[in-house]
UniProtKB/TrEMBL annotation:
Native organism: Gossypium mustelinum
Pfam families xref list: Glyco_hydro_9
Family: Belongs to the glycosyl hydrolase 9 (cellulase E) family.
UniProt keyword Transmembrane helix present: yes
The entry's keywords: Carbohydrate metabolism, Cellulose degradation, Glycosidase, Hydrolase, Membrane, Polysaccharide degradation, Transmembrane, Transmembrane helix
Protein name as it appears in the record: Endoglucanase
Coiled coil: none
Transmembrane residue ranges: 73-95
Start and end residues of each Glycoside hydrolase family domain: 110-571
Length: 607
């Protein structure tokens, strides 16, 4: 009998001692002939008498049959059968559990840090908090803010640890968060945080709409600040505040109004599918920008923002470029791009000049952000004349800025631990570092989207991944890869600041009401904060990588919403490396297509 091969290469060698072989029509048959012979008539008649003997004979013949099976094949067969049985069981399990949620994928450090950084905004909410706020030690607070001013000023976000609401940094924070959503909504969706970050933005923009008459066509004042830093002898939870909280208004504040316009314009794109709300945001942004510029654009001759104890603006021309660029993206109105690409405005803004803060994006300096945003227009849309020259200048400027972040550049020093000193050794460096990490990663993704392999920085060509690597090293430093092995994001890793400058976190949540003086014992306590303000990025170390975990030293230990917004943006940008990429189109949804670029005028003296 010939050997028969199995599917997996083994053999089934079966021998039947009783089998006969016959050849019929050229084919060989293997069978027990006695089982197939037609019985004679007498055998049929006698069969019932012979049945016991016949049964015994059949049993004897079966015993003589011998099956020789290859052991390896047998084992493989059993394995296959087991696998098939397991597969069937798995299919049955999934069929019966098809409505159950799948377990979440294993999360990397950036995903975990992102989720926690977003939680910080939940801890900063003012007013009547939403039911889904998951910070157990926070409650409703300052419900009477702005009573008598329009419809009141309840809600919004406290800026840092002292329960004051500043419109300037809050607007910048909302702009940065919206920008990150517009670029990386798919990454937010993957982490399950898209709805969360959109809720955070809307809580902020709802408040900003209360700070001026957003239903009017013109305005003459906006809210600069609500509340004030309490005196040194007062330490109290926001929920216990019962002293008057002043509302500070301003009638000439171009930087603030233009930043608020940027925030509402960017958010209007985030919420474009909610047509009514998006339209409301665009209208508010439009009247704010007109209020900021007095309708004069680059010929603005009005005053500067009023002085403040905190968050003083050093100028407003950069906010005009920044706000105008966002207004163009939100409306598609060509008057805005005409303004932001006018040489006069760029000259006023000193957009193409150097200086110690050149390339340092923050709540007061929008140059780098505006230049990258304008470069995006050039990289993905074909504008041509008359915009190309200025857009090219913006593109070259931001490329130089990103190059200046690299270790080979001498524009910025670094600490021994590797932290770039964007604010030149001054306190609270991390807020600027996170913004730079976001810009560098986003710039890299723009190169990726345009199939550009890298960029020439001076005499050296850098592959695009070098810019992403810069961002990763800085964010990794913040998360704990530093000389102190400390995470500067609270609640991330096992070693993080314990004495955060934050009144709400430093006082136990079970204390519902207390006076200013009664709370001082918690400020002076040597024990760590009783409440962990998860996700808060503190001010950060000094230029020697030193850090004082001291509740009273806010330069080291106070978090802010502007700082955390940059952290969130950088973290979501770095998720998944470059696999997901950016959303190239949503940002431009309101911009009409250009059928033909305008031709430049002929040279002088020629027809």
């Amino acid at each position: 009998m010939p050997e028969r091969s199995s599917l997996w290469g083994g053999t089934f060698d079966i021998t039947l001692e009783m089998e006969d072989q016959s050849i019929e029509n050229g084919h060989r048959h293997y069978y027990d002939r006695s089982a197939y012979q037609s019985p004679l008539e007498d055998e049929v008649k006698q069969g019932w008498l012979l049945r016991p003997a016949m049964d015994m004979e059949m049993k004897r013949k079966k015993k003589k049959r011998c099956f020789n099976i290859n052991p390896t094949v047998l084992i493989r067969t059993l394995v296959v059968v087991a696998v098939l049985a397991g597969f069937v069981a798995l299919v049955a399990f999934l069929a019966t559990h098809r409505h159950h949620h799948r377990p979440p994928p294993v999360q990397d450090n950036y995903t975990i840090a992102l989720q926690r950084a977003l939680m910080f905004f939940n801890a900063q909410g003012s007013g009547k908090l939403p039911a889904n706020n998951n910070v157990s030690w926070r409650g409703d607070s300052c419900l009477d803010d702005g009573n008598g001013y329009l419809n009141g000023l309840e809600a919004g976000y406290y800026d840092g640890g002292d329960a004051v609401k500043y419109s300037f940094p809050a607007s910048f924070a909302m702009t940065m968060l919206s920008w990150s959503v517009l670029e990386y909504s798919a990454k937010y969706e993957t982490t399950g945080e898209l709805n969360h970050v959109k809720d955070i933005i809307r809580w902020g923009t709802d408040y900003l709409l209360k700070t001026f008459n957003s239903s009017a066509d013109t305005i003459d004042k906006i809210v600069l600040q609500v509340g004030k830093n309490s005196p040194e002898n007062c330490w109290i939870r926001p929920e216990s505040i019962n002293y008057p909280r002043p509302v500070i208004l301003c009638s000439t504040c171009p930087a603030l109004a233009a930043e608020m316009a940027a925030a509402l314009a960017a958010a209007s794109i985030v919420f474009k599918d909610d047509h009514k709300y998006s339209k409301k945001l665009v209208h508010g942004a439009d009247i704010l920008f007109k209020f900021a510029t007095k309708g004069e654009g680059e010929r603005y001759a009005g005053g500067s923002d009023p002085p403040s104890n905190f968050y003083n603006s050093s100028g407003f021309w950069d906010e005009f470029v920044w706000g105008g660029a966002w207004m163009y993206c939100a409306t598609g109105n060509s008057s805005y791009i005409d303004l932001v690409t006018s040489p006069g405005l760029a000259k006023h803004a000193k957009a193409f000049w150097g200086g110690p803060d050149h390339g340092v994006l923050g709540w007061d300096n929008k140059h780098a952000g505006a230049q990258l945003l304008m470069s995006r227009l050039r990289m993905f849309l074909d504008f041509g004349y008359p915009y190309e020259e200025m857009l090219k200048n913006f593109h070259e400027q931001i490329s130089e800025i990103i190059c200046s972040y690299l270790p080979g550049s001498h524009n910025f020093k670094r600490t021994n631990g590797g932290l770039i000193e964007l604010n030149h050794g001054k306190p609270k460096p991390l807020q600027y570092v996170t913004n730079a990490a976001f810009l560098a990663t986003l710039y890299t993704d723009y190169l990726e989207a345009t199939l550009t392999p890298g960029w020439q920085c001076g005499a050296k060509f850098y592959p695009k991944d070098e810019f992403r690597d810069f961002a990763k090293t800085q964010i990794d430093y913040i998360l704990g890869r530093n000389l102190r092995h400390m995470s500067y994001v609270v609640g991330f890793s096992d070693h993080f600041p314990q004495y955060v400058h934050h009144k709400g976190a430093s006082i136990p949540g079970y204390i519902k009401h207390q006076s200013c003086q009664e709370g001082l014992r918690w400020k002076e306590s040597k024990k760590p904060n009783p409440n962990t303000i998860v996700g808060a990025m503190v001010g950060g170390p000094d230029k020697h990588d030193g850090f004082q975990d001291n509740r009273s030293n806010y330069n080291f230990t106070e978090p802010t919403i502007a700082g955390n917004a940059g952290l969130v943006a950088a973290l979501v940008a770095l998720l998944d490396g470059s696999k997901t990429g950016i959303d190239k189109n949503t940002m431009f949804y309101a911009i009409p297509p250009f059928s033909m670029s305008r031709l430049p005028p002929p040279p002088v003296g020629k027809p």
